[in-house]
Amino acid sequence: xxxxxxxxxxxxxxxxxxxxxxxxxxxxxxxxxxxxxxxxxxxxxxxxxxxxxxxxxxxxxxxxxxxxxxxxxxxxxxxxxxxxxxxxxxxxxxxxxxxxx
Length: 101
Description:
By secondary structure, the chain is mostly helical. The protein is built from 3 helices and no strands. Helix 1 packs antiparallel against helix 2. It is elongated and about 55 Å long. It starts with a helix and ends in a 9-residue tail after the last helix.
């Protein structure tokens, strides 16, 4: 029975990573104003599978949290340019290192 719990935990971990990747793809499609219904349906299917696995895992008596490494996708810069930083007196007149020969 312990092997079954480990298999379920491994499957849940892999499914979470796949869900995060699919959600990132879906958000990119939304940002490009594209149709994301296919990816959204796949995410819903993954969630139903996840729900069944969690119920089975709980029935087997495993209540420990499953940790997943962070899957971070940085956001793209906004279309608006940030205002250029105004130079300050300290940044213009700071001492510079000069090599002496």
